[in-house]
Amino acid sequence: MSESEPQPVEESESQPVEESESQPVAESEPVYNENSHLFAVRTTGGQEKVVLRLLEAKMRTENINVQSILLVDNLKGYVVVEAQDPQHMFNAIQGIRHVKGQLRGELQFSEIESYLIRKSTVSELAVDGTVEVIGGPFKGMKATITRVDHDKEEATVILLDAPYQLPVTVDANYLKPVKT
Hints:
By secondary structure, this protein is of the alpha+beta class. It is 33% helix and 27% strand.
């Protein structure tokens, strides 16, 4: 009897714990999704970092309901602000230098997701493909890929602009595929 009594007690204790643990998780996710909106703030070109720092300073000194500020390298002239509603975002950018305005409406996460997930350059490279070298001593030259090393993220290329064929190993981040 003593062996059978602890088992129901353990089961009855564990069941309410599981229910109580799952309830806050279920409640917290919709609250975050409902109160989180993304807005694109237009800035002076090249001043995105300045706007980011000014918004950050304003968030620290004043009570502003902004969850996050996102600076995307590929999105020139814009800063993405995550706020509870447009009014909170508008109050946050009010009086900030280099802010030119905002895009009407909200951004969907799917619209900025491609900027957030960094895709490896090596995955875009293929043997016998044509690329442009965008960095290093061969910057601006076109080349043909002869070998791709996915582990080291390097590619061996033959420069098309050189007077003779010379295989050169280049970091894949310095290569940009060219459509022919």
